[in-house]
Amino acid sequence: MQALIDRSDREDDLVAAGEVLDLRFRDGGRSLSLRASKLFNILIKEAGIRATEDVEHSVPIADLNFPHLERDELVECVRDLVGTTVELRVKAANGRDEIMVDPLLYGVRRPAHIDEEAGILYFRLSPTLRKVLEQSNHWAVLSRKAILAFESRYALRLHEIIALRSGLDKKHAETFSIEDLRIRLGVPRGTFKLWADFRRFVLDRAVGEVNQLSAFKVSYEPLKKNRRFAAVRFEWEMQSKEGLSAVARELEASRVGRKEIGRASCRERV
């Protein structure tokens, strides 16, 4: 919770609890859309140091007008956050771990006509989410500019996963089974089943955007077992001074003005 307090006045810093960032969406289950994920991070920022309290938070709808979000899409994003149920591990009063199931938000109120410029969005964080935020002792700092610039939900999820691990004992690499990675990234069941498709449309796109728009430089290596791709090893480091300057230019550019994302750095073992 102290992390939220320490960075509450830093506009570009979005502080997120590790337990929330490390959500594993059930394969085939409902995961958040890209826009809903962006909105969720912004609402946590708006809740600020009162995020663990059972209070109604509010934010001017005009402040949620981030790029490529139309007003009717905002309604759908809110419905997504209220309708998506998550399972999170928390500590019970007896000290034992327990699983709580809840939506992320509830008690949302908004104007009947969303185009009202003076409209206010009211929301409450679910009891489970508040408890996680209160108990968490590991946090990640995300870049608001990067999150709003991502065009792939897989890029946003990969950025969250790496930001969390980068803050834990200064990790710089981790290996995930492909099944586990699909769940963590929220890849729907039955999609991108071929390795070539998964690499092209999920991994290359996600790693390419993270490298282009964030403070991390990421590469990955597919690993085989019994002649089949079975896992992916990610390695990451902080961008160089020159790399951070290039990222800043990309973030300042309009969507149309950004460079085309090239193929991600990938080393395949035969």
Distance N to C terminus: 46 Å
Overall mean confidence score, pLDDT: 82
DSSP strand count: 10
Main sheet attributes: strand count, strand direction, barrel closure: 3 strands, antiparallel
| DSSP helical segment count | 10
Range of strand content: 15-25%
| Radius of gyration (Å) | 19 Å
Low-confidence stretches: none
What share of the residues lie within helices? 25-40%
Classification by helices and strands: alpha+beta
SSE arrangement, N to C: HEHHEHEEEEHEHHEHHEEH
Form type: globular
Strand arrangement across the biggest beta sheet: 2-6-5
| Count of individual domains | 2
Summary tags:
three-stranded antiparallel beta sheet, alpha+beta, about 270 residues, 10 helices
Overview of this protein structure:
The protein has 270 residues and is an alpha+beta fold. It has two domains: 2-135, no CATH class; 152-252, Winged helix-like DNA-binding domain superfamily/Winged helix DNA-binding domain (Arc Repressor Mutant, subunit A, Orthogonal Bundle). It has ten helices and ten strands. It has a three-stranded antiparallel sheet. A three-stranded antiparallel sheet has the order 8-10-9. A hairpin with a 5-residue loop joins strand 3 (85-91) and strand 4. The longest helix has 19 residues, at 195-213. It is globular, with a radius of gyration of 19 Å.
